[in-house]
Automatic annotation (TrEMBL):
Membrane topology classification: Multi-pass membrane protein
Name under which the protein is recorded: Glutamate/aspartate:proton symporter GltP
Keyword terms, alphabetized: Cell membrane, Membrane, Symport, Transmembrane, Transmembrane helix, Transport
Phylogenetic placement of the source organism: Bacteria, Bacillati, Bacillota, Bacilli, Bacillales
Transmembrane among keywords: yes
Pfam annotation, one family: SDF
PANTHER family from the UniProt entry: PROTON/GLUTAMATE-ASPARTATE SYMPORTER (PTHR42865), PROTON_GLUTAMATE-ASPARTATE SYMPORTER (PTHR42865:SF7)
Membrane-spanning ranges: 7-24, 44-65, 77-99, 151-169, 196-219, 225-251, 312-338, 350-373
Subcellular location, record wording: Cell membrane
A Gene Ontology BP annotation from the UniProt entry: dicarboxylic acid transport
NCBIfam families: PRK11283.1
Length: 429
């Protein structure tokens, strides 16, 4: 009997979820039945993310050496993150100015969604301020950060601990071997959990379509289509050019990450693919010391899909209300987004919270967000997939920048994937 690849299993789960959701649209009973299956899958992923990040960072940083080297690596990553996310913001603005997706939208035909929870989160974040957010990266209580899943303080501690393990030399070897064992055990568990991905995808997409239905997309179809086309352009052209500059074909990244991209898109959760993403980028020639630092940090600072959407959505709402934003106002919007999209990294519903923190600064009505909140899940799926591609490419760019990218290892991994695909094709015949 022919074995179906994980990518196909996830894709089948996605299609079946859409069908079930469309057939039982509006049925709370079906949604309530499916919800636990999706939630359990996401909880399983969240269960292993922190142990993998901590162990991989400690092993990677201990192997990288001194604090100076780590600081240099982190600075290069942050410079790259800022450049690419700024380009993403500009691409989103250019697209909105070209297409005008918000012009002519009848707000009377739209359904308002309650966004009070996002408003409260934005108020808390705004009160905290950017400087306080930077301060919060340094944990006062590691166990509190672990319990709350605050990734940036966890990354900070892991980096410092890894440097400490490297500094004490031979005495640190038992500690290093322990975390190597933890890392390998966690990746083994990841492979077990990934077998449940098709069920998780089926349940999560089924719940989404059951609750909102495909009909809810029609009034805002111009926004959805604009976001998707702009995102495809950004990935193929902008990220494609960056990849070409460092000697990589962007389609090879799609090839090695096809399972993860379908999973990230279906679940709208980048956390769901973080463990496999780190594992695959290491196989693709990036050293562990870079992979374990760049990818988790990028999950907070390198959200290309999210920042592109935020600028496009801001102009969409302005156009919907008939507000014309001058060039200077749009430049102001870019500058504000450059700060807010980084300053509140890791906050739940980050795209909405960033928009709430940004719209008021350029005179766009905040209540406009309530009109697009209902379709946010559909847009979030695309944003998440782009974030995954962006962070994968960032790892390669920083590896190349450091002169540590293993081209032969990457070529061998691609050949291995091609061989597996040809085996599947042979079995299909």
């Amino acid at each position: 009997m022919r074995k179906i690849s994980l990518a196909w299993q996830i894709f089948i789960g996605l299609i079946l979820g859409i069908i079930i959701g469309a057939v039982f649209h509006g049925s709370d009973q079906v949604a309530n039945f499916l919800q636990p299956f999706g939630d359990i899958f996401l909880r399983l992923i969240k269960m292993i993310v922190i142990p993998i990040v901590v162990s991989s960072l400690i092993v990677g940083i201990a192997g990288a050496g001194d604090l100076k080297q780590v600081g240099k690596l982190g600075l290069k990553a942050l410079i790259y993150f800022e450049i690419v996310t700024t380009i993403a913001i500009i691409v989103g603005l250019l697209s909105a100015n070209l297409v005008h997706p918000g012009s002519g939208v009848n707000m009377g035909s739209l359904t308002k969604t309650d966004i009070n929870s996002y408003v409260q989160t934005e108020k808390q974040t705004h009160e905290q301020g950017f400087v306080a957010t930077i301060e919060s990266i340094v944990p006062t209580n590691l166990f509190e950060s672990l319990a709350e899943g605050n990734m940036l303080p966890i990354i900070f501690f892991s980096v410092m601990f890894g440097v400490g393990v490297a500094a004490i030399g031979e005495k640190g070897q038992p500690v290093l071997r322990f975390f190597q064992g933890v890392s390998e055990a966690m990746f083994y568990i990841t492979n077990l959990i990934m077998r449940l991905a098709p069920i998780g995808v089926f349940a999560l997409i089924g719940v989404t379509v059951t609750k909102f239905g495909l009909v809810s997309l029609i009034p805002l179809s111009k926004l959805v289509i604009t976001v998707y086309i702009t995102i495809i352009f950004f990935v193929i052209v902008v990220l494609g050019l960056i990849a070409k500059l460092v000697g990589i074909n962007i389609f090879n990244i799609f090839k090695i990450l096809k399972d993860e991209l379908i999973l990230a898109y279906s679940t709208a959760s980048s956390e769901a693919v973080l463990p496999k993403l780190m594992e695959k980028m290491e196989k693709f020639g990036c050293p562990k010391s870079i992979t374990s630092l760049v990818i988790p940090t990028g999950y907070s600072f390198n959200l290309d899909g999210s920042t592109l959407y935020q600028s496009l959505a801001a102009l969409f709402i302005a156009q919907m209300y008939g507000i014309h934003l001058s060039i200077s106002a749009q430049i102001s919007l870019v500058l504000v987004l450059m700060v807010t999209s980084k300053g509140i990294a890791g906050v739940p519903g980050v795209s909405f919270v960033v928009l709430l923190a940004t719209l008021g600064s350029v005179g766009i009505p905040l209540e406009g967000l309530a009109f697009i909140a209902g379709i946010d899940r559909i847009l979030d799926m695309a944003r998440t997939a782009v974030n995954v591609v962006g962070n994968s490419l960032a790892t390669i760019v920083v590896s190349k920048w450091e002169g540590k990218y293993d081209k032969a290892k990457a070529k061998a991994y691609l050949a291995e994937i091609d061989h597996k695909e040809s085996e599947y094709a042979t079995e299909a015949k």
